[in-house]
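Sequence in, structure out. Go.
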Amino acid sequence: MSTRLACVVFDAEQPRAVARFWSELLGWEVTVDRPGAVEVAAPDPDGPDVALTFLPERRPKSAKNRIHLDLSARSLDHQQIQVDRALSLGARRVDLGQGAVPWVVLADPEGNEFCVLEPREEYVDTGAVAAIVVDTRNPLRLAEFWSAAAGWPITHDRGDYAGIRSATGQGPWLEFLRVHDAADAHTRLHLDLIAFPAEEAARLRAAGALPIGPGLPPANASAVLLADPETNEFCLLPAISD
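Output:
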C-alpha cells in the first residue's frame, strides 16, 4: 500500500495550549513546537498510536466537529480517572443529545468534542485513542473510501456505523457514524496521510476524493489538499524519501 494515516490535525486558536491539554491528558509528549505547528505523539515512536498536530486558526469554533476522538479505558475506575483528569485540565461536559449512555462526552478547552469510553473488549489494544470517529450520512460509503485511501480493511458494517482498522490489528479504529446532518457541519479536525509516491493523489481522486483549490496548510507547503466524498478535507503529505 502506498499511503499511511499519519495524524489527526486540529485547527486551534491557541495551538500550544490545546496541544498541552492533549499531551497531559494522554500522557504523550510534545515532539514539535514551532509557530506554524505543534505536534504531540505517544512516547514510543514504534507504538500503534496516531499522532496529533495542532495548527493555528483565527476563527473560533462555531459548530460541532464532524470528526472526534474516542479515548479508551481499561476499567470503569480508569474511565472515571480519565474524566476527572480531563476536567481538571480544562475540559467540560457537553450534551449533544446522547442521553443515558455509558461513555462520557466532553470538550477540550477550545470546544472540540471527544468521548471517554467505558471499557470495551475491542479497544483493549488500541492505545490511548480507541477510535477516530467521523460523522457521515453514509457510513459504508465513507468506510469504503477510507479503506481504499489508507489501505485498512473494513472490519464491520452495522448499518448506522462502520469501521476500518490497520491489518496489523494495532492502533485506533477509524469509524464512521451515521449522523443525518453530518454533511452540513463544520469541523476543526482533519486527517493527514503520508503518500508513497506522489502519484497517490491521482489514485485517491479516482477512488472518489475531491480536489480543493490551491490553498495549502502553512506547515506543509508541498501537501496536496483533498476532500473525501462527503467533503471532509484531508491532506496528502509527501514521504520524506520523495
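Check: Helices lie at 15-26, 76-88, 139-150, 200-206. DSSP finds four helices and 16 strands in the chain.
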